[in-house]
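A sample follows:
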Amino acid sequence: MSELDAASWVRLELDAAAFDAARFAPYVENCRAAGIGSTTMAALGDGPEPRRALYELNKECSADIPGRGAFSSYEENVRVRFEAPSYDPRGVVIAYDGDAWIGMSATSDHRADGFVFNEMTGVRAPYRGRGISLALKTLGIAFAGLCGVSRIRTVHHAANTRAIAMNRRLGYTDAPTPAAR
């Protein structure tokens, strides 16, 4: 993201230590009661097949994000996501309905800088509006504790008002803009 379009982006941060998980637990329970399960890439074995399935899910869920641009090829995605030092399969939560993967929340490990970063949370269109994103984000917030940090950061295009509103509902606040280099 260039400095020229910085006004198009909203940077948010959550103090995971202050997060009221009990307030959002009903979203997780409602999903379970509706037959929507959850797991992590780590629990799935993080092999080639789950990675390809995650890529396809991410590509589909990202298609209508304002300011997203073209989605990378699978090979490029492997290089910049799975092979990145910040990738940790424990930070990727998958929602499923039977055998179908229907949602995801991917958080990367930047503990050396004092935070984790929520890369993407998305749900396939037919499953939206059921609280699945809130459940995924709630489950994903625990990743910060696994990394020994309390800050979670994320960035959204300003036109992605639904994602920004969801994050604010969870307790995210405006994060400081990084200094220009």
Remarks:
- Residues 48-62 form the longest helix (15 residues).
- Helices lie at 21-33, 41-44, 48-62, 74-82, 132-146, 161-170.
